[in-house]
């Protein structure tokens, strides 16, 4: 019994010694790391270039070889961040850069101040290689093209669009070489799919843009908007008028009225009346020896759709 207690006490003391040793080991490593990172180093780092503020009328052609090797002098703490992500620097094309016939020419003497502003104050730029970069450019064409909606829509029973679908914006601007821009006359959306629609539509959709790095597009998505309402069928009895009957003739025709059926939204149903429709028969269009007039709807309200007549012919007789 006493022997077991003694063994447990010795084991506990030994574990504490190990834990204390590990703690001091970790602390020593942390202190050493802090001292190392606090030391000033001079390192050369390769930076990728971001081209910014390029005039809209020009296109700087892509060149993956455009990098700058910048030697920096600073603490290890400041250098550490450049090893955890791909470093890059901005080169502006609106100032501190020269333009020749075919190239934009950047040199480190003109561009040093812009570069220096992109680094922390306690980071010193020692050297920049190369001291000159040439960016070939081409003249851009600018073209505005319409957007075409590619959609697959289905509505809940009795629901439909109140008006046409709106695309916002309805066109985009394309910037790029003339030879490429001239081939594009419109841009389609990705397929816009909605099922069982019974409320207004207001949703984004991506554009199906050409995959070409030399082209710039003002938008990569648009908004699809539309008003939706419940629809119903309406029926009205409308008088028929015969026109262009010669003064020398008198005719009788029947029926004098025809039913029209139409499709309209519930919100507009009560605003539609018989006075909104006009049905005429043109006597000049009667075929020789025919006994029938052809009725036509010459006026109907804009909110009525799929308007149909109850019959396609009207009988008439000439009175002697």
UniProtKB/TrEMBL annotation:
It comes from the Bacteria. InterPro entries: c-di-AMP_regulator (IPR053154). PANTHER family: CDAA REGULATORY PROTEIN CDAR. This is YbbR-like protein.
